[in-house]
Design a protein that fits this description.
CATH class of the largest domain in chain B: Alpha Beta
Largest sheet of chain B: 6 strands, mixed
Helix content of chain B: 40-55%
Strand content of chain A: 15-25%
Largest sheet of chain A: 6 strands, mixed
Radius of gyration of chain A: 16 Å
CATH topology of the largest domain in chain B: Rossmann fold
Mean pLDDT of chain A: 93
Strand content of chain B: 15-25%
Strand order of the largest sheet of chain B: 9-11-10-13-14-15
Low-confidence stretches of chain B: none
CATH superfamily of chain A: Pyruvate-ferredoxin oxidoreductase, PFOR, domain III
CATH class of chain A: Alpha Beta
Radius of gyration of chain B: 21 Å
CATH superfamily of the largest domain in chain B: Thiamin diphosphate (ThDP)-binding fold, Pyr/PP domains
Structural class of chain B: alpha/beta
Number of strands of chain A: 6
Order of helices and strands of chain A: EHEEEEHEHHHH
Oligomer: heterodimer
Mean pLDDT of chain B: 96
Structural class of chain A: alpha/beta
CATH architecture of the largest domain in chain B: 3-Layer(aba) Sandwich
Number of helices of chain A: 6
Distance between the termini of chain B: 46 Å
Strand order of the largest sheet of chain A: 2-3-1-4-5-6
Shape of chain B: globular
Number of domains of chain B: 2
Number of helices of chain B: 13
Distance between the termini of chain A: 17 Å
CATH architecture of chain A: 3-Layer(aba) Sandwich
Largest interface: A-B, 19 and 24 residues
Amino acid sequence: MKDTVEIRWHGRGGQGAKTAALLLADVAFKTGKYVQGFPEYGPERMGAPITAYNRISSSPITVHSNIYEPDYVVVVDESLLDSIDVTKGLSPDGAVIINSTRSKEEIEEHLHGYQGAVYTVDAKEISIKALGKNYPNSPMLAATVAVSKVMEREEFLTEMKASFQHKFAKKPEVIDGNMMALEMAFEAAK
Amino acid sequence: MAIRERLSGNEAVAYAIRQVNPDVMPAFPITPSTEIPQYVANYIANGEIDTEFIHVESEHSAMSATIGASAAGARAITATSSCGMALMWEELYVAASNRLPIVLALVNRALSGPININADHSDSMGARDTGWIQIYAESNQEVYDNFIQAFPIAEDKRVHLPVMVCQDGFITSHGVENILLVEDDKVKNFVGEYEPEHYLLNEAEKMAIGPYAVSNYYMETKRAQRQAMINAREVILEVAARFEEMTGRRYSFFEEYQMEDAEYAVVIIGSAAGTCKAAVDEIRSATGKKVGLIKIRVFRPFPEEEIAKALSKVKAAAIMDRSEMFSATSGPLGAEIRAALYQAHSTVDVVNYFYGLGGRDITVSDFEKVYQKLETIAQTHVVTDMYTYIGLRSTQSEEV
């Protein structure tokens, strides 16, 4: 793994891309890393495109700029592919991970000739199967960890479970569903 | 043992407020500082602190209520940004001239217009002449550390001045980073109990705060404020030394990064200093060129002699301003640094760049170009484009 891994998230306001970036920072922090998780704010409104970023490193991070040449790009809403060049600056040694029902081949046509790896994850299907609701951000988080290998699978799942147990202390019945969504997405992105 | 955490800059300031447990916090929400009173309100609602939170109808009222509480003898704080602080304008002067040790968490944001919610320093730089001490931060760690140090600085009997603890909106306020927190009891011990010397609720000492002063008295008041700002210099260093004893983290008026042998220096304030440090590291490891950085922490009082000394051996320096002052010449930092260099009879070649206005991003490669430019200036001793905007998009771009 490179010393610093840089990840860019594309989503729409309200879908939880910023939350996913902050969750990734959280879980990477718990495994002993130096982390950054930060959003880029435009005119905020539900449905507007938003960008969020992660830097994860084994040494302290001082850079405070946005990320223009990421190692990984995560697209939480595939409708953004028509309006945003999501793979702009993306390392050909990295990967783009897209929430989509479409096949990799169909998606590739929309990626401006990106030469690196392309992963599609049907986060909606996974979320509905595991949780009964469409919360695409946690499956996309698991897929991102699976593809980027910023931490081991077991480490990730253990930390996420601890985090869910804290977050859902008053409704423990949803913890299993959330864990299942993570595991399914992890498998789907392998 | 320090507590290893990851927090946003706003969370870090709120955490420090919880640890200090001030008596009164009047506040009015404005992006990007809103989270600070929001988190503090949570601490209060959860019974973790007993701060009196005052819901006010504007920032004018927020600062007025903070002044009232501080004059009464309370440890009083508030938080704001941008136009919020602009609406406090009149009261900023009242707080400083009445020598009230208020601490203000300022989350720097551009002033209108066009209306914009992102980071630049136009709000605090506009307030540089109000008589407040100003301390700036590069990171979440620094804003947390500065916030804790602000209380013993403001409340010192040699100072008695309000302190503005500044951080860059969104970049640090909403960015989550690693941070080392100090234990509650150590923070409480560090700031101590606030024991005001003169205050309105003291029955034994009848006094007025904020009365009219005729010309015969006004000027002496200003000279006394000036003296307090001069005294603040030693107090800031004393508090920093005490803080270093507690945490091992060293603070001064500014940070010198790779300056021991530097030939080319950038002078900058705030979060972009971290980005510039990465450029310094890359240039030094790739080319061996002697580049360095001075990051201003304390802008008021201004460390004139120390800065001139720190820049005395460089061949060329770029002063970086994150706000305009529309003099049609320098930015606020540019003007101060050049005055300091003139006073020290320095002949170092200087350029003054404007960057990051309204949140415009500045990158490692932007700083690499700045250092390249400094090298050219040092070779030719010709300074072209003395005042330059970095990262402009238009055809009139003066980009370096």
